[in-house]
Amino acid sequence: MPLDLALERAMFSCVLRPLRSHLEKALVELHNQDGTCQRLTKNLLHLKGDAAMERLGVRTGVPDSRGVERVKQKLVLMQRTHSPIDKVLLLLQVCKCVHKAMGSLHGQEVSWDDFLPSLSYVIVECNRPHILIEVEYMMELLEPSWLGGEGGYYLTSVYASLCLIQSLDREQPFSGCLTPEAQEALKEWSCRRSREAQRQKENQQSQRCVRILFQDGERSAVRTLQWRAGETSQALAQLCASTFGVSDPQQYTLYWRSGGEMRALPPQAQPQDLASHSEGGPSLSYLRTDHDFSKMRRLTRGGAVDLSESVCEE
């Protein structure tokens, strides 16, 4: 598993696991107040039955009873997990099950206009109104990177299907078209999440992680700290003093290796000034101003120490 995905899953476990029930309760209360849950529950019951395929305008193959049962199991698992990543992966399995069944009739290719009625039919047959809460949970908590490609396509497809089922009038045929309100809601959501993604990208570009080696006599440590664009090395030095518990920061200086020598970092230096000197971010040392640099050396791989670090030899 990639490191970033593992970290994301760990964060979900720490943060979302205890919050999930509260978030779901808030969403349920919201939709009870606006009547969404009631309309969805009522229409799911009205549509379920032998006439469902005709009522929904299904023109392709659909999952059989065993396939519908498998989809139900996926939806049960989806409701149990707290991770939006796990939820969307289960949702992908549901939609692919529908898509596979659609193509099984005469081997024809299928379009989104055909997919939506078939997906709606399966949702009706499963009769689990809570899927609305699950979909909104994913739409709001998934990272923007998960909202592109298949994840975003099928997630918005399920949302569109739920909107269609809610808006269905018993006296009117299933049009397969979203209401203006649903279209506007999807547009607003897409724009908002796009803005969030842009802000996140800008924040990532405005900060850099730097490795800091601290050593003072018998004390030594290495920490990775954030050095934001626009902040000088003086601000970073203050952060180092706080991080390493230094009581007399005026006696310490930030150093970096340049041309094989340890040099004091200029007070007004910024992250971009050092970016080209170290792959993955600069590696600095926070040492006493009277440190004996004659004891500094670079260890090789034979010493089992990362070459990117500066190490003091006592």
From TrEMBL:
One of its GO terms (biological process) is vesicle-mediated transport. PANTHER family: RAB GDP/GTP EXCHANGE FACTOR, RAS AND RAB INTERACTOR 1-RELATED. It comes from Larimichthys crocea. InterPro entries: VPS9 (IPR003123), Vps9-like (IPR045046), VPS9_dom_sf (IPR037191). Residues 34-174 form the VPS9 domain. Residues 267-289 are annotated as: Disordered. This is Ras and Rab interactor 2 Ras interaction/interference protein 2. Signal peptide: none annotated. GO terms for molecular function: guanyl-nucleotide exchange factor activity; small GTPase binding. One of its GO terms (cellular component) is endocytic vesicle.
